[in-house]
Amino acid sequence: ATLSSSSAASDVYKRQVYTSSFDRSIRAWDTKTGRCIHTFFGHTDVVTQVKVHKDFIVSCSGDRTIKIWDRRKFDKPFKTLSSHSQMVFGIHIKDKSIYSHSQDGTVKIWKLKNGDQKKNIELGYPVTSLSMNKNSFFTQAKTSVEVWNLKGKKCFSLDGHTAPVLTTARYKNYLVTGSIDRTIRIWDVKKGKQLILLRAHEGSVNSVEIKDRWVYSGSEDGTIRQWENVLYQDEEDHGWV
Question: Cβ(166)–Cβ(211) under 8 Å?
């Protein structure tokens, strides 16, 4: 089925896809029929991300708020979280908590059930990206990636890039990063060390993805490259496969 929507981000729950949009709405779609089941309104700016966890829908927006909805009631949000001072770029749900990251330089941790704020982490730079694994979360800090435990304590930094990090992707204990320095680096986040340095692109690496143990990278040089078997090696420098 084809879903017709100008979507900014999406999440899937059972047979439904939830999309956030530049039109300030959240829409629920039936994946079998492609039909929009319901539209949620409440934000006053672009909805940058939506996540679904059991009966909860959580959304964030350029209006600086996070909203928690009851998925079953198709009603107004039952809680609005409004302590960010600038655009909220994204959210994650982990262990009954919401992790939000913002242009205001903070990561905030909230209780999913009632929206109470548990932790405010001042990073001092716009937190444009945040990714998570079982025990940690990662933020892009200029030329490095900072690793934090789930309680908000900084563990260490992954340092090696010589220009800002633009993109990350995670697979088990591996983190893949791409940078303006034209390189891709693969890290063991459990040990906190760089495993592999990949060189081939002639421009900034704007996106990295991991699929079936392959790493894919997209660059400003107009190419997409596929890297084979790099997640199971421990060598210094690799060329293009």
Answer: no
Inter-CA distances, 54 with 41, 119, 219, Å:
20, 23, 37
H-assigned helices in 96-206:
none
Which amino acid makes up residue 111? K
Give the residue carrying structure tokens 């998925």.
Answer: 71
Residue 119, SS3?
strand
Sequence-distant (6+) residues with CB within 8 A of 213 are 171, 229, 231, 232
d(Cα 129, Cα 139) in Å, to the nearest integer?
6
168 in Cβ contact with 207 (< 8 Å): no
DSSP state of 63: T
User: Is 201 in contact with 219 (CB distance < 8 Å)?
Assistant: yes
Structure tokens at 42: 């409440």
What is the Cα gyration radius of the chain? 19
List, in sequence order, every beta strand (DSSP E) within 73-124.
79-81, 88-94, 97-102, 106-111, 117-122
- CB count in 10 Å sphere of residue 230: 20
Kindly give the confidence (pLDDT) of every residue in the chain, 241 residues in length, as a single tens digit, with 9 standing for 90 and above: 444 444 555 567 677 888 888 999 999 888 888 899 899 999 999 999 999 998 899 999 999 999 999 888 767 898 999 999 999 999 999 889 999 999 999 999 999 999 999 999 998 888 888 888 888 889 987 899 999 988 888 899 999 999 988 888 888 888 999 999 999 999 998 889 999 999 989 999 988 888 877 899 999 898 889 888 777 655 444 443 3
Q: How far apart are CA 95 and CA 93, in angstroms?
A: 7
